[in-house]
Amino acid sequence: MEAMPQDGSLTAPLIVDEKEQNLRREDLESNYTHYTNGTTSSFKTIVNGLNALSGVGILSTPYAVSSGGWLSLILLFVIAISAFYSGLLIKKCMEADSNIRTYPDIGERAFGNKGRLLISIFMYAELYLVATGFLILEGDNLQNLFPNVEVKMAGFHIGARQTFVIIVALIILPTVWLDNLSILSYVSASGVLASAIILCSIFWAGAFDGIGFHEKGTLLNWDGIPTAVSLYAFCYCAHPVFPTLYTSMKKRHQFSNVLLICFILCTFSYASMAVIGYSMFGSEVESQVTLNLPIKKLSSRVAIYTTLVNPISKYALMVTPIVNATRNWFPWYCNKKPFNIFISTALLISTVIVALAVPFFGYLMSLVGAFLSFTASIILPCLCYLKISGAYRRLGCEVVVIGGIVALGVAVVIFGTYTALLQIIGHLYN
């Protein structure tokens, strides 16, 4: 286990006197015993990390390549490297202070209560919109399977997509009422397997079900680069989970290797899906590649049904932090079951309304990726590390690299958010 600086500084010398090192280790062990009770093995942490990183973003990578062209894949790897590096910075921030347990704790350690508030806002907004994206994804794919379903009630006509969004919300409703989501956490761990099944099913559809990989595509489309980068960023939005993974580990010094394995495997799956999907459908690829699949083929149905199961199992886990934060605003009622059910139900209803009002999965994920994911996963970890470590006081290679990453992040946030909002507004009024 690496020796951690007693004073919380990240700039302690790597080589110290042996006697001093032993005294420091004894001091750390006596003061930080409470915080070193992690029991999770490195292998299980890798599985949890893969589950956090692998999500519905894999469905939109072919659309991202379609927007920016083949060369935009370079930006996928640039974002992956930047996100991996910011993950290492989160680890360094947590090593600086044993009291840091969560992502908002890092913000508070760096910038006080304002830092905690800022990070909390970005976290909860990101979780809210990802949960909303789940409902949009479900409605789109179910409409693709059953396009003729519609409901007429009291003079109102509800189309297939809207009907399925409401039905899925009713299915999800009991799960958000649960106080203990441990069962759902085990179900949601199937996300890693689900992503692999989806990738294999779509490859099978292209290789053996007559679709083929004949589309040459576009080499580069400058106008679509902001959208492509935003969608790539959405694929790496798991940084708020990293502190939890770190504190749960039995051997925390292996966390860097765990992150490396997770990022390599997930980036490989994202890039593979992008290449396979774009080669199959070219510029005609939808925001969710599953919408392009011929539904009569078994491989297509496997991919679509796997896509449908995963969001249902993960929705409650996504909104639980928001529910808990909302409950804390009302300390007099937070322990009362009816009140908790009311908060959970109201939150679900609000996401249904947003999903019905903004039925554009790709554009919503682009907005989340540009404005929220890039800020929460790349920019804020860099700024927090610079403040906690004091590295900003001395100009060096590390500061230059971090400064470049922050500059890239700010550019993506500005141009990506602007482009996503224009696309959403344009489709709402067309």
Top CATH class: Mainly Alpha
- How are strands sequenced across the largest beta sheet? 1-2
Main sheet properties: 2 strands, antiparallel
Query: What low-confidence regions span 5 or more consecutive residues with pLDDT below 50?
Result: 1-36
* Helix/strand order: HHHHHEEHHHHHHHHHH
Write up this protein:
The chain is mainly alpha-helical. The chain has a single domain (38-428), classed as Amino acid/polyamine transporter I (Up-down Bundle), CATH 1.20.1740. The protein has 15 helices and 2 strands. It has a two-stranded antiparallel sheet. Helix 4 (73-96) runs antiparallel to helix 11 (255-281). The longest helix is centred in the first third of the chain and has 43 residues, at 103-145. It is globular. It starts with 17 loop residues before the first helix and ends with a helix. The model is unreliable at 1-36 (pLDDT under 50).
Supply database-style keywords.
two-stranded antiparallel ribbon; single chain; 70% helix; disordered N terminus; 430 residues; mainly alpha; 15 helices; Amino acid/polyamine transporter I
Show the helix and strand layout.
Layout (H helix, E strand, L loop, with lengths): L17 H14 L10 H12 L7 H8 L4 H24 L6 H43 L5 E3 L2 E3 L1 H17 L5 H7 L2 H18 L16 H10 L7 H7 L6 H27 L16 H31 L8 H21 L3 H29 L7 H32 L2
Antiparallel strand pairs: 1-2
